[in-house]
Automatic annotation (TrEMBL):
Domain (Alpha-L-glutamate ligase-related protein ATP-grasp): residue spans on this chain: 323-566
Organism: Chenggangzhangella methanolivorans
Keyword vocabulary terms for this entry: Membrane, Transmembrane, Transmembrane helix
Protein name: Alpha-L-glutamate ligase-related protein ATP-grasp domain-containing protein
Segments traversing the membrane: 43-62, 69-85, 100-120, 132-154
This protein's record includes keyword Transmembrane helix: yes
SUPFAM superfamilies the record matches: Glutathione synthetase ATP-binding domain-like, S-adenosyl-L-methionine-dependent methyltransferases
């Protein structure tokens, strides 16, 4: 549950009410337990704490229907109450306990109070400044605790020593800071979640922490208590103490990064970003590469909940998704023709279920947990004769003894028996006893098609007793996804982070640069398996290459992205996975922000029948908009936009104005701004928050006038139509309803533009009509061209294309046109090209015709003026573009 934000009156009203309540509470507390004569700071501290308590109590009542927020404000109320009563308890406990114990209890109370308030603030971490202020309050609290301990440990006079006054001042400052943080939860604006494409690690961490995506704590330790304030910081220090001594020296010697500099990195990354010391060394975050940390994703985010939230984006797609149950996984793969390791029997609670004949067991056997991961709890039985086996401990046993052992071992786990697979002869020299595993990462692209992004050769060193002993459990070697070439080999332990091998560490066999002949078949096997399990966004596949070909061992829907980054020495943000994962993180961001927008109201003020705001407010806003579209205001807005574009392009060389426009619009939307094409805007009373809400019924009426133009011409339901610049689908929604399933293609510069409209369409219509929606890139344009569209239309897009980029705009449209296709482009017309806003132009027909002639001189173009809309200064017009004269005639013919 995301914390709501109220109107201006709702934000400051409770605080003013809390101010009024705090005064009588302060007077009452003074009567119940009066303070000593030296109590100026204490009185101030009490008042501020009671102010916070009153505010928390009011918010607790306001959010009583939300369990999550009720808990948060309950923590805040308890924390401020502890601060308020702490000084008053001192006279009561002083006569009965030793002084140092009294000091210890006081310090524990302060730390507990601070932790509770910080926990409450975490519910509002998506708001600016909230957690900065909360962390500052925690730091001041720890300083006050330290002063208090030092004051009594050294026996200073509490009434006269300056340290005592500093302690009282620190306590007052901490309390004031915490109460300020509580107020900010209700008035602070939302953070921006727009990042550079390669800053995927920073983006992932921001989403993970700000929206509380932790579902089950797994890494670096599973105990939930380790995530609590103060305890978390102590745990970070403990991890630093565990891993730094074994790695810091080697890093200093190889990379020149001093020990103190490493310690500074670890403290900053741990306390600010939550990244542990093991990740720091495994991912070589000490390397002097700009942006390395921002581009790296760690196990802290992925293993503790981010992967799961990404996978849930595809939950509504249906289809097989369970990869944890190996029996179910085997059945699904077998049903869909995906080669996987067969299961010969299952053993559960002592019961054996045969799935193969007894004769099939006269071979090497491999047994593992039905839901196990990482090679844990396994048995190997090597054939030593007919139905005789050598167990892991070297004993010779028969089949009956094997089965009895498994029955006894299945009391608290479910086991599966499989034939032990053999390595392909071409890789047989890479391992002696263990199976060589090829790990392949696949991720769905924007079209829902899996792409192979990483490949790794994985040698299970822990299963090779004759190999050298190292801290590593596995050795890994990157495989080039395109060529199948091996890279350098390394281990998976932080202590060996600086060790890289061109040759096999145990056998000396040359690896680096060697081409894996079966790589193409291995990667294709992973892609085929992902098509079956398409309900999963991201999957890590473990594959064996046997004499019979690739065999899928298992799929992991919570894959260890860190391992791929480690062996490739390339962070996700700079790898082929980066652009794909950014699409899904964008979808997740939109979903989280949408949930926030819906929940950013007080529960008792949640009305579905919101009335439009005052006409005077709407009129004033329209007047301001009109000023910046005309005359001096328009020219000033245009100059400012050009300056912003020039500055932005310096940071994004090669980007176009369309990219800049997309960046600005996305930024506005992610901050909760209005989407002008979603329908009638309802202005809330809260000008600090997103100013609009949208209704499905109103949205369905938008764009109907444009659609009727096509409906009255040659539009048929069996046509394939491309909506170039589909935006919020205000026009596209009518095409989606009209066309047969799978025949609508919507493209725009960023997918953020069409997500809100897609939500308003409703899941039933989307599932029925199966529209294809994608951001504009080379792949999506190629896909659209391959569909051989009958109609390509672009509505209210050309007005946002600057004159210098007309050729690129028309080039993309014409590139999708087959010999029988027609393109229809709507634009604002003028006698000569003129700027009509900060990001808008009216174009002349000769200017557009000249651009089209440069793109393809064989095109046939028809210009059809349209009447200007209400309040428009510039007439609308249509360009009808065709390759065949009969198609142009069909679409240019006006209806009767």
């Amino acid at each position: 549950m995301i914390a709501p934000r109220t109107s201006v009156a709702g934000q400051f009203g409770p605080f003013l009410l809390a101010f009024g309540l705090a005064l009588p509470l302060l007077a009452l507390s003074g009567r119940v337990a009066p303070l000593g004569p030296e109590s100026g700071f204490e009185i101030g501290n009490d008042f501020v704490a009671l102010l916070g308590l009153s505010f928390a109590g009011i918010q607790l009542v306001a959010h009583r229907r939300s369990a999550s927020l009720r808990a948060a404000w309950g923590w805040a109320a308890l924390g401020t109450l502890l601060i308020a009563v702490e000084d008053h308890l001192e006279p009561l406990v002083a006569p009965v306990v030793p002084k140092l114990l009294e000091v210890g209890l006081s310090n524990v109370a302060w730390i507990l109070a601070a932790s509770l308030i910080v926990l409450a603030g975490r519910r509002y971490a998506m708001r600016r400044y909230v957690m900065i202020v909360m962390r500052l309050g925690l730091a001041i609290t720890l300083a006050a605790v330290g002063l208090n301990f030092a004051l009594h440990a050294f026996g200073f006079d509490e009434t006269a020593h300056g340290m005592a006054k500093a302690e009282d001042l620190a306590e007052l400052a901490a309390t004031t800071t915490f109460v300020l943080g509580l107020l900010l939860t209700q008035i602070a604006p939302m953070k921006s979640y727009h990042f550079a494409p390669d800053q995927i690690g920073l983006r992932a961490r921001r989403l993970f922490y700000d929206f509380g995506l932790e579902t089950r704590r797994r890494y670096p330790a599973p105990q939930p208590i380790l995530a609590l304030p103060v305890i978390r910081h102590l745990f970070i220090l403990a991890i630093i103490a565990r891993f730094m001594p074994g790695s810091a020296g080697a890093v200093r010697d190889v990379y020149g990064r001093g020990v103190l500099a490493q310690l500074g990195d670890l403290l900053r990354m741990g306390f600010v970003h939550g990244v542990d010391a093991k990740s720091y060394y495994v991912h070589e975050l000490y390397r002097p590469e700009p942006g390395l940390f921002e581009a790296t994703i760690t196990r802290v985010e992925t293993k503790n909940g981010l992967n799961r939230r990404i996978q849930l984006l595809r939950a509504a797609q249906g289809g097989p998704s369970d990869m944890n149950d190996k029996l179910e996984f085997f059945r699904v793969c077998e049903e869909h023709g995906v080669a996987t390791a067969p299961i010969m029997a299952t053993v559960e609670d002592g019961a054996l279920v045969w799935m193969a004949s007894r004769d099939d067991f006269d071979r090497d056997l491999f047994v593992k947990d039905r839901r196990g991961r990482g090679g844990r709890f396994t048995f190997n039985f090597e054939r030593a004769g007919r139905f005789l086996y050598r167990a892991d401990d070297g004993a010779i046993v028969n089949l009956a003894e094997v089965l009895q052992t498994l029955r006894l071992s299945s009391a608290d786990r479910r086991l599966i028996i499989q034939p032990k697979l053999r390595n392909h002869p071409l890789i047989g020299s890479l391992a002696e006893k263990s199976l060589v595993v090829f790990r392949v990462m696949t991720c769905l692209d924007s079209r829902g098609e899996p792409q192979a992004t990483h490949g790794v050769l994985r040698l299970l060193r822990r299963f090779e007793p004759g190999w050298p002993k190292t801290p590593d459990a596995d050795w890994g070697c990157e495989i080039d996804v395109e060529t199948g070439a091996f890279g350098l080999m390394t281990g998976d332990a932080p202590e060996t982070a600086t060790r890289w091998f061109t040759d096999h560490p145990a056998t000396g066999e040359r690896l680096s640069g060697r081409i894996l002949e079966g790589w193409r078949e291995i990667s294709e096997a992973a892609l085929a398996a992902h098509r079956v399990f398409s309900a999963r966004v991201l999957v890590g596949w473990d594959i064996a290459w046997t004499p019979e070909g690739p065999v899928i061992l298992e799929g992991n829907s919570n894959p260890d992205v860190s391992y791929f980054q480690r062996v490739s020495r390339t962070p996700v943000g700079r790898s082929p996975l980066g652009p794909l994962l950014n699409v899904h993180l964008g979808a997740l961001t939109a979903k989280l922000l949408d949930q926030t927008a819906r929940e950013q109201r007080r529960p008792d003020a949640d009305r579905r029948d919101a009335k439009p705001g005052p006409r005077s407010f709407v009129a004033a806003k329209l007047a301001v908009d009109r000023f910046f579209e005309r005359g001096i205001g328009g020219r000033a807005a245009g100059t400012l936009a050009d300056m912003r574009f020039a500055r932005w392009r310096r940071a994004n060389p090669g980007a176009t104005y369309a990219d800049f426009y997309a960046h600005r619009a996305t930024l506005r939307l992610e901050r909760g701004g209005a989407h002008k094409t979603l329908g009638l805007r309802h202005y809330r009373a809260d000008p600090l928050f997103a100013s609009v809400t949208h209704e499905t019924a109103q949205f369905s009426n938008r764009g109907r006038r444009y659609f009727r133009w096509f409906e009255d011409r040659a539009l048929r339901s069996d046509m394939v139509c491309v909506d170039y610049g589909c935006g919020s689908l205000r026009v596209g929604q009518h095409f989606i309803r009209h066309l047969e399933p799978g025949r609508y293609i919507g493209l725009d510069v960023v997918d953020r533009f069409f997500r809100d409209g897609l939500t308003l369409l409703g899941p039933e219509l989307v599932a029925e009509k199966r529209p294809y929606l994608s951001a504009i890139d080379a792949a999506s344009l190629e896909f659209a061209a391959r569909r051989n569209p009958d109609l390509i239309y672009s509505t209210a897009v050309l007005q946002h294309v600057p004159p210098a980029e007309l050729d690129a705009y028309f080039g993309a449209i014409v590139g999708m046109m087959g010999p029988r296709a027609v393109a229809v482009v709507n634009f604002k017309s003028a006698d000569s090209t003129v700027r009509i806003g900060s990001s808008a132009w009216a174009h002349s027909f000769p200017k557009l015709l000249s651009s089209l002639d440069r793109v393809d001189p064989k095109l046939i173009v028809w210009h059809e003026p349209q009447p200007a809309g209400d309040g428009d200064d510039h007439a609308q017009a249509m360009l009808i573009i065709a390759r065949a004269p009969d198609q142009l005639a069909k679409w240019s013919a006006r209806p009767d």
